[in-house]
Design a protein that fits this description.
Blueprint (H helix, E strand, L loop, with lengths): L4 H5 L1 H21 L7 E5 L5 H9 L4 E4 L2 H7 L9 E4 L8 H4 L5 E5 L2 H13 L4 E7 L15 H9 L4 E8 L7 H20 L5 E7 L6 H6 L4 E4 L1 H4 L5
Parallel strand pairs: 1-2, 1-8, 2-3, 3-4, 4-5, 5-6, 6-7
The protein binds pyridoxal-5'-phosphate.
Length: 240
């Protein structure tokens, strides 16, 4: 065991990232898009800081966490000179205070109540927090987010809240093996995104369409995603 034990031990992560970047390049090419327009987020839930910092050394510059307690516990060990962090999990009102100021964006705003709390806490920090509105595109009971039918109305309401900037949409689509069905969910999201963007609402800039995870980021890119959130495909050792 030499000095480079850890980097060797994490070689599979390097390999995983290489494959993901190739897939991003391929999907972009098929879609006629510039691959540089697609941001790769490493979803670092359940991942220890040492591995997170390894991924940052490989050039990943955005991480996503979905549990407040875990994120706060790891916070001081993560090299934030190399990355930004977004919060991507369901938030409870009493936890918002611990997240505002520690992240660059909260992607998982799923109620008016949570938006108001983020606004209030941001004003205490004298800075706006960028948020995405989460959309429950499949209408699943197990998922959070606004129904597509209520989204526009919520955008208007939330855009009035001080301390916030609406920067786009985020979604987790239903799990499916059917690529056509997946693409339909993603294209429906893209349509909502374009629709809201065209309304030119004050305090709303539709810059980020966060959709696609390990199992479906290829289809998401084909349908317009510009931020993919990838966890297991980066961090899991593959069986050969
Ligand atoms: C865990 C998680 C992901 C990543 O999921 P993988 O399938 O592991 O890539 C993406 N988005 C959210 C909100 C998550 O909680």
């Amino acid at each position: 065991m030499g000095e480079n034990t850890n980097s060797k031990a994490f070689d599979y992560i390097k390999e995983n990232l290489k494959i993901i970047n190739e897939n991003i390049a391929q999907a972009s090419q098929v879609a006629g898009r510039d691959m540089n327009d697609i941001r790769l987020m490493a979803v670092t839930k359940n991942i220890e800081a040492e591995k997170i910092n390894f991924v940052l050394d490989q050039g990943v510059s955005l991480i996503g966490e979905n549990r407040v307690q875990e994120f706060v516990a790891k916070y001081d060990q993560i090299d934030f000179n190399k990355c930004k962090a977004h919060f991507i999990g369901h938030l409870q009102t009493n936890k918002v205070r611990q997240i505002v100021g520690r992240v660059d964006m909260i992607q998982s705003v799923d109620s008016l109540k949570i938006a108001k709390e983020i606004g209030k806490r941001s004003l205490n920090h004298s800075k706006n927090t960028k948020i995405l509105l989460e959309v429950n595109i499949g209408g699943e009971a197990s998922k959070f987010g606004f129904a597509p039918e209520e989204l526009i109305e919520k955008v208007y309401e939330i855009s009035e809240i001080q301390g916030l900037e609406i920067s786009g949409l985020m979604s987790l689509v239903p799990i499916s093996e059917n690529k056509k069905e997946l693409r339909k969910y993603f294209s429906d999201l893209n349509r909502l995104f374009i629709d809201i963007s065209s309304k030119k609402i004050d305090n709303v800039s539709m810059e980020i369409l966060s959709m696609g995870m390990s199992g479906d980021y290829y289809e998401a890119i084909l349908e317009g995603s510009n931020l993919i959130r990838v966890g297991s495909s980066i961090f899991a050792k593959r069986e050969n």
